[in-house]
């Protein structure tokens, strides 16, 4: 039977061990994400948000509990996911064209068709003119767009996004938010975003989870109304109900 969930997490616990102590980052966390849903994780630093992404990606092994992607148990790095971080991670000695197919090469998927699709994505990002440039020749916003192309190139079903736009100015941030939303809707992808930007969370998310406590747990869930979700990120920020949602989210995050 096919699972109705893109992501299913049950009683997840993860513990770090240092030289002097044992630290439980998250405890008995359960969560489901529907296919095509955009879920955002917010909360104070150190509450386990990035740890949750790393566990879903199969980069960490939980101390207890289980993670399934489309009904398949995660036991290591998964072909279902692709991970984008705050730092673009572009290799300075490779051109844009070479950087954006790095994931394809690592997964042994760099076929002619896959590379052609990557170039089409780059064109959609408005960067077809920088194919032969090196990263140092690009602005911060351009570098993040190339990183987004690289993330999407492997055609993941689930995008894991760890503060990918936090270092950008507001114009580039909103532009990349829109590009991301356009791609997710067109390709019907699932996404989980970690951000400290509460406005960003409301402007692009379907459902927002407040993570808090030590160890981290889900303390509050906020569903973004459909009329806001239907708007582009810039227009969403101007919606009459946006400020009240922001105030609610602010109170929940800062009450923990």
Detailed description of the structure:
A 6-stranded mixed sheet has the order 6-7-8-3-9-10, sandwiched between helices. A 4-stranded antiparallel sheet has the order 2-1-4-5, covered by helices on one side. The mean pLDDT is 90. It contains 10 helices and 10 strands. Helices cover 36% and strands 25% of the residues. The chain is of the alpha/beta class.
User: If you compute it from the alpha carbons, what radius of gyration comes out, rounded to the nearest whole angstrom?
Assistant: 18 Å
Report on the biggest sheet.
6 strands, mixed
Total of helices: 10
> How much of the polypeptide forms β-strand, as a percent range?
25-35%
Low-confidence residue ranges: none
Which strand order do you get reading across the main beta sheet? 6-7-8-3-9-10
Secondary-structure-based class equals: alpha/beta
Summarize the structure.
With 256 residues, the chain is an alpha/beta fold. The chain has 10 helices and 10 strands. The longest helix is centred in the last third of the chain and has 18 residues, at 170-187.
């Amino acid at each position: 039977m096919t699972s109705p969930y893109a992501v299913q997490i049950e009683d997840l616990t993860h513990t770090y061990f240092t030289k002097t102590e044992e630290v439980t980052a998250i405890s008995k966390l359960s969560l489901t994400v529907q296919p095509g849903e955009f879920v955002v994780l917010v909360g104070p630093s150190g509450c386990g948000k990035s740890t949750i992404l790393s566990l879903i990606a199969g980069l960490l092994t939980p101390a207890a509990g289980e993670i399934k992607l489309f009904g398949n148990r995660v036991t290591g790095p998964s072909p279902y996911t692709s991970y984008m971080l705050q730092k673009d991670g572009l290799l300075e000695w490779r051109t844009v064209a070479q950087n954006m197919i790095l994931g394809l090469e690592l997964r042994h998927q760099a076929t002619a068709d896959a590379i052609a699709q990557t170039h089409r994505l780059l064109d959609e990002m408005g960067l077809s003119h920088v194919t032969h440039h090196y990263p140092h020749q690009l602005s911060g916003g351009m570098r993040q767009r190339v990183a987004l192309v690289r993330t999407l190139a492997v055609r993941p079903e689930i995008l894991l996004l760890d503060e990918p736009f936090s270092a950008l100015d507001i114009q580039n941030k909103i532009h990349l938010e829109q590009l991301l939303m356009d791609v997710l809707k067109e390709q019907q992808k699932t996404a989980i975003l970690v951000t400290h930007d509460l406005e960003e969370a409301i402007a692009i998310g379907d459902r927002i989870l407040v993570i808090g406590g030590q160890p981290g747990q889900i303390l509050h869930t906020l569903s973004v109304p459909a009329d806001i979700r239907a708007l582009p990120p810039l227009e969403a920020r101007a919606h009459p109900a946006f400020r009240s949602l922001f105030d609610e989210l602010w109170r929940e995050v800062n009450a923990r």
